[in-house]
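Quick one from the shared queue. A colleague (R.T.) flagged Glycoside-hydrolase family GH114 TIM-barrel domain-containing protein as missing a structural entry in our internal table.

Convert sequence to structure tokens.
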Amino acid sequence: MEHYNLQFNETDNLVTDGFDVIDIDMEDTSADTIASLKEKGLKVICYFSAGSYEGWRSDAADFPPEVLGNSLSGWPDEKWLDIRRIDLLQPIMTARMDRAKAKGCDGVDPDNVDAFTNNTGLDLTYDDQITYNTMLASEAHDRGLLVALKNDVAQLNDLVSSFDFAINESCYNYNECGGYDVFVEQEKPVHIIEYKKHVFNVNCSDAKSHGFDMILKDRNLDAFVKSCY
């Protein structure tokens, strides 16, 4: 994947001027909208959560109770998934990728793929996460989709070869951006989204010096965006 400027946006009030790639919700975005974005020359990356259960999704009934862990901090209606149960989760995730492909998405952005570092209530290990994330990347590539490694800063070295680019939310805010040079060294884009203005402003020059693409967004992913050029 060449280096592109990425916009991370909700489906309503899409802002695309000045961007080459847009990252939008896979389920909430219609095939017609995706086609219109691609007609403008944009690459379309489609977001879904691969590591958590969201009760409002159309396929929520496909998740058996035994794969559900603790609620995510700050998101009481969302629960961590037991990624050890690939036998149960892989068919759900590949079905999502099939829908993304059918809609015309160029790639996917599987979120919450760092469960082993969180309070899931599931006793997940580093190796459990590697196995699950590698499966996701392989299934995406089997469908001709690009795939992002979302956050998961502890496993960048082990997973860089499996993923096409990286996306991180707030790594400067949490002082976790240092490991992303491994992606740049392999000429794989690194897209950083910060949500605090002062963090964005202070670190813009550092992001540019490392070859990272960084934007400032509001938490609700509305039309506001500021790029670090």
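The chain has one domain: 6-227.
The two ends are 20 Å apart (CA to CA).
Added to the table.
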